Amino acid sequence: MRRLLIVTLVGAALVGIGSTSASAETIGGEQLAQRGVQVNLGPKAKPVPDIAAETWILVDATTGTVLAAKDPHLQRPPASTLKTLTAITVLPQVTLDQTYVATTKDTHLEGARVGLIAGKSYTLEQLFYGMFLRSGNDAATAIARAPGSVKKTIARMNEVARDLQALDTTAKTPNGLDRPGQVSSAYDLALIARAGLARPDFARFVGTKMFNFPGQGSSTYAIYNQNRLLMGGFRGAVGVKTGYTSNAGRTFVGAATRKGTTLIFVGMGIHEGSADAARKALRWGFKNHAKVTPIGALVLPLSATQTGEAAVTPEQPSGESDQELATAGLDIPSAGDPMAPWWFWLILILAAFGLFVGWVGSRRRQMQGGNRGGPHTPPRIERPYRPYQPR
Where do the segments described as Disordered lie (predicted)? Predict the structure, then answer.
């Protein structure tokens, strides 16, 4: 009888809070919602270096875990780092040998340009090199126009962001030039970079140091990658993208691979050299990633979880749950119902207390059984992260 009462109380609590729990959750883990620098240092871990940025994140792209961060869900203008979203949106829609004839609209853009010539034909491969190495806004706009129209590509970019669960991101341009309401976050840009690096074509573009771009007639000219982390010889550097506007300040997505582990650093509103900030974070990460307890995780795309891909959330037991058994046939009011009687609120309080006592007992049993994992440890992704394919 006692067990049935506890199950009933727990069931009532779960039904009552079900309507609000989803909105209260933070994508990637609750610790990512806390302000300031977040890290769970182990006994032998070194302190996180001082990184002069409004927001930043350091993630292990191999396992999907977040090693350290500062306000990772803070929304800020992304500048040219948004071109990573343009790339993972358009790459599945085109072939790299597909040709595109540049328009006058493509060539008349503010900011960085690779030098498209109106009326000249380019392959999509050439345009992607122009977008990533030279950060060409003209190339980014041409890439967005290639599948149909810039407007449709921007709409598709936002659909891809929703599928990735990059919910802090709203795209208004394909090139990252400042527009009212165009924002992203360090967490979202890490999601996007991870999805991109899983694609061999994306990884090749962001990791290329020099490319001969078509000029007048049959001539070419060399364009060089602007990523100083990559060009400066940082061991294992593989990309990814620089960014700057007067509104966004310095933004940066950098990644490196050592001994089979790929780390991604994202900084926004950086107040020092972007590559300098990335070097400090990545060096610390490679030395300490096995000595810290992750503070969160990079979630998988919704389309991946719907098709059976390994998820970064614990599996739920199959069959009827205790909640379903306890609440079958009962008319239990919702916690959001202002007319809920006093006894319902008492049940919720008692149920919450029962859940807490049960959790404490469970943790004691785990610790006595030899489990030393911290409460913030997210499950690891045991299979390689597959290339992202938008729905």
Answer: 366-391
